[in-house]
From TrEMBL:
<protein>
    <recommendedName>
        <fullName>Regulatory protein RecX</fullName>
    </recommendedName>
</protein>
<feature type="domain" description="RecX first three-helical">
    <location>
        <begin position="24"/>
        <end position="60"/>
    </location>
</feature>
<feature type="region of interest" description="Disordered">
    <location>
        <begin position="1"/>
        <end position="20"/>
    </location>
</feature>
<comment type="similarity">
    <text>Belongs to the RecX family.</text>
</comment>
<dbReference type="Pfam" id="PF02631">
    <property type="entry name" value="RecX_HTH2"/>
</dbReference>
<keyword id="KW-0963">Cytoplasm</keyword>
<dbReference type="InterPro" id="IPR036388">
    <property type="entry name" value="WH-like_DNA-bd_sf"/>
</dbReference>
<feature type="domain" description="RecX second three-helical">
    <location>
        <begin position="67"/>
        <end position="105"/>
    </location>
</feature>
<dbReference type="InterPro" id="IPR003783">
    <property type="entry name" value="Regulatory_RecX"/>
</dbReference>
<dbReference type="GO" id="GO:0005737">
    <property type="term" value="C:cytoplasm"/>
</dbReference>
<dbReference type="GO" id="GO:0006282">
    <property type="term" value="P:regulation of DNA repair"/>
</dbReference>
<feature type="compositionally biased region" description="Basic and acidic residues">
    <location>
        <begin position="10"/>
        <end position="20"/>
    </location>
</feature>
<dbReference type="Pfam" id="PF21982">
    <property type="entry name" value="RecX_HTH1"/>
</dbReference>
<feature type="domain" description="RecX third three-helical">
    <location>
        <begin position="112"/>
        <end position="160"/>
    </location>
</feature>
<dbReference type="Pfam" id="PF21981">
    <property type="entry name" value="RecX_HTH3"/>
</dbReference>
<comment type="function">
    <text>Modulates RecA activity.</text>
</comment>
<dbReference type="InterPro" id="IPR053924">
    <property type="entry name" value="RecX_HTH_2nd"/>
</dbReference>
Amino acid sequence: MVERRRKGKRGPDDPTDQRAIEHRAVQLLSRREHSAHELSHKLEQKGFERDAVRAVVARLETRKWQSDARFADVFFRQRVQQGYGPLRIRAELQHKGVDEDEIQRVFEAEDVDWFALARERFQRRFPHPVDAADRRKEQARRMRYLAQRGFTGEQVRSALDSSLEDPI
């Protein structure tokens, strides 16, 4: 089978050229923060050699151009603002290759009331009380919504209970 390349989408001339790798890495970092794992993965997808990529990313970390701590802080705050819960944020940070100690540091540094956030997301998404005819099915659907956003079972139950106590 013949492999065809798309026009304008070609790999690097020299996959070990550290200047080209650094140039591409800086372009990516100028748009937004990336974890070291995520940045390495993107550069390898572009066709650069793994060892050369790791050397460049390590150099960028030394210069403080790339920082997993800074990435974790920014990512955490964005996800909280978007209304995601602690379980999902932790899983996404792990998936992006952030060290568990760094994840724990971010969670401890930021003071988030997860119960209040769950209630706020719940009330925003479901402003109307549950109809008595579909109560069980609708409550299960509403609970699933918060669980998929990464809230714990306790936080989900608290949000559901508050909506039953304070009908809008």
